[in-house]
Design brief:
83% helix, 17 helices, Growth Hormone, Chain: A, mainly alpha, 2 domains
């Protein structure tokens, strides 16, 4: 509609923003899914137990989740491009240093730095897209962005499995360096604009610290259940979270505007639906990677090829789902997606050692289709439901829901592994217990995703009235 009046420089800017945002969207999931497959080899190299290996994934997700909303808010105040570029720089540096890690503790510290940098990148990339693209073309742009996420997820296991097998796990990090450097150059050369719609506001440091500590206690506590410390941390996380909530309601420039959640039904329920969706699906990759490599005896590369079936479906469907969400009620499309995910998870509960590979692949495909239909319409619903000055925070919320969901998902998985296997390394003697733990996990995830369908449907009347405005 308004595309005919676009100047060449506007078109160039949109193109550059899409490319850089897609790069950024590719990085984190690629890292997550490729490192998943490299875990057995990292364990062997640095002598880590099954529970410690879970921390290679969790330390990254946890640090990312804690900083997403504060960085999203900071970006609204000091400028989204500034925070985004700083994040890319930190990412490139920490990725370079990881290649030389010689101890498990050092690896974890660098993974935390990567997590912080990924919060700076993700807390701003959707906000930059929303600043540059008008409402009618936003869904398509987000569809492309989400496709990059899924390309990262699908390339991760294949490239990661291949690199781990032939060049060792460190080569995964080396592979990402050129991408980081190219993105930095592109921003410097092509993106001259800066977006800061809340320039006059003060940054809420106290609220950010409150938020970080309560989220850390909650998520870290969750990951070390069923220990007593775990329960104490969860309880303190809930108390601190409540205090954070009350503090943010009173303060003038809150890091997270609670009114968004209380007065904006579409925003609130879309956020909850995203949290539940990621909580129910993220650790399935972790479980299936262990299942294929240990119980089925595949090497890392073959396991990667099998696991690619899910993200490939996501990548194929996301642009279409994004375009549909520009035309039709995004909430309805997302709810269908959530329903398919739930169906796939319920069927995974029946997988055993004898299950045929075709069954595993089919279930991954069903979940991939569900995920593809859910993700970009849900992000479109969230970003289109807020004012310009809140784009950074809303972008941070999308990312936080994803990260917190992934963390809860991994927390459930790690808790089940510690209940069923304790501190043992995985070996043929405890395969049946590993399988029992996986099955329990899939049952929990199925129940969650059924609840998610209701959260997704609850916002739908709110969206249709927003679209008519």
């Amino acid at each position: 509609m308004h595309n005919n009046h676009e100047t060449t420089s506007e078109k160039e800017l949109k193109k550059a923003v899409l490319i850089v945002a897609a790069f950024a969207a590719f990085l984190t999931p690629f890292l997550g899914s490729s490192v998943n497959l490299a875990l057995p080899s990292i364990g062997k190299d640095l002598g880590a137990s099954a529970i410690e290996l879970g921390w290679v994934i969790s330390s990254f997700i946890l640090s990312s989740a804690i900083f997403l909303i504060p960085f999203g808010r900071l970006a609204d105040i000091v400028g989204r491009k500034k925070v985004f570029s700083a994040g890319l720089l930190l990412f490139t540096l920490s990725t370079t240093i990881i290649i030389f890690s010689r101890s498990f503790a050092f690896l974890i510290v660098m993974r935390i730095c990567q997590g912080i940098s990924s919060a700076m990148i993700f807390g701003t990339s959707l906000a930059i897209i929303t600043s540059v693209f008008e409402p009618g073309e936003r869904g398509r742009a987000m569809g492309i962005n989400v496709t990059a996420v899924y390309l990262g997820l699908s390339a991760g296991p294949v490239i990661g499995g291949f690199l781990t097998q032939y060049l060792g796990w460190r080569s995964i990090f080396a592979f990402l360096l050129p991408f980081g450097i190219a993105s930095l150059v592109l921003i410097k050369v092509k993106i001259k604009d800066e977006w800061a719609d809340s320039r006059t506001d003060r940054f809420d440091t106290a609220g950010s610290i409150f938020y970080a500590i309560s989220l850390f206690s909650l998520i870290y506590g969750f990951s070390i259940l069923p220990s007593v410390t775990g329960w104490i941390l969860i309880l303190s996380g809930i108390i601190l979270g409540t205090l954070f909530f009350l503090y943010e309601k009173k303060t003038d420039n809150p890091v997270f505007d609670i009114r968004l959640m209380l007065q904006n039904k579409v925003f609130a329920f879309s956020g909850i639906a995203a949290l539940i969706h990621y909580s129910a699906t993220s650790a399935t990759g972790f479980f299936i990677s262990l299942y294929l490599q240990y119980l089925k005896g595949f090497d890392a590369r073959t396991a990667g090829f099998i696991m690619i079936s899910q993200p490939v479906m996501m990548a194929l469907l996301s642009p279409l789902a994004g375009r549909l969400s520009d035309r039709y009620n995004p909430g309805v499309i997302a709810s269908y997606g959530m329903g398919l995910t739930a169906a796939g998870l319920v069927m995974l509960c029946f997988v055993n050692e004898e299950s045929h590979l075709i069954i595993i692949v089919s279930l991954l495909v069903i979940m991939g289709v569900g995920f593809g239909l859910f993700s970009s319409p849900n992000s479109n619903a969230i970003m289109s439901s807020v004012e310009k000055s809140h784009f950074g925070v809303a972008s941070g919320v999308v990312g936080t829901m994803r990260m917190a969901g992934q963390m809860f998902s991994m927390g459930i998985a790690m808790m089940l592994i510690s209940v069923y296997l304790g501190k043992e390394q995985i070996n043929p003697a405890n395969y049946s217990r590993l399988l029992a733990g996986m099955r329990t996990g899939f049952i929990i995830f199925s129940v969650l995703s059924v609840l998610g369908i209701f959260a997704s449907l609850a916002r739908n009347n709110g969206i249709s009235s927003k679209l008519q405005d």
